[in-house]
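Problem 12. The chain below contains 238 residues. Write out its predicted structure in token notation.
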Amino acid sequence: MKLTKEEIQYIDNYLIKNEVKFWDVRLELLDHIVSAVEDKIKSEGISFNEALLEVHQGFGNKTTVGYTNIIDFEKALFVDDKGFKTFTRNKQKAMAKKNRMRFWSIFKQMIMSSKFLLEYGLYILLVLIAYQYKPKAAFMISLIALVLPELLKLKYVFKKGVRYSLSASMVGGISSAILCLQSGLVNFYKDEFTFNDVVDYRYVICFYILLYSLFRANYNLYKEVLSTTINRYNLLMS
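Solution.
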């Protein structure tokens, strides 16, 4: 038995009320729940309410408060949402693993690309020339090269479908977290590698140069995931 549009909309609203905030997770849950409810109605001959309540419990959600039995269907559906939180956490773990695997695949492809090797060579050459002129300028160039991909991400952040997507949130924070450590690293470096009031920037510049390829690969992964997420959102909303 196929559910009506009203029943499917009811399930969607029920997921929203149970604080399933990511639209991509909610759509996956919606698909699971609709199929499970339809199967139970058909195989067990029970009502929509009974089937939805059983499926709700099947996700690990409670339908009672302590020792008090909640008979009312509407109340029972919103007593507990821990099962959906567990589902979301499991999705996060699966996405994190998938993103790591895809990141290293993109990284390997990128470093074998003549286009990237030319870009990387020009970047290193620019840093070396700047270092001959002024070490601090070379340091700033190497740091800006890491920050630039993060700034380029902003053109995706405000697109529809990104803000409340688990896929987008999972891939967006990797390099951003590393950048947050830069100020502490720079302050530590200045304290430890300052001689006669002159900072030796050589080691931190080399470190940033090595990080550049990782940040570029992360940016490519970010573009790929967000492009897929935005296209999926537009397709579903059209």
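Discussion. Residues 5-80 form one domain. Students who got a different answer should revisit the alignment rule from Section 12.3.
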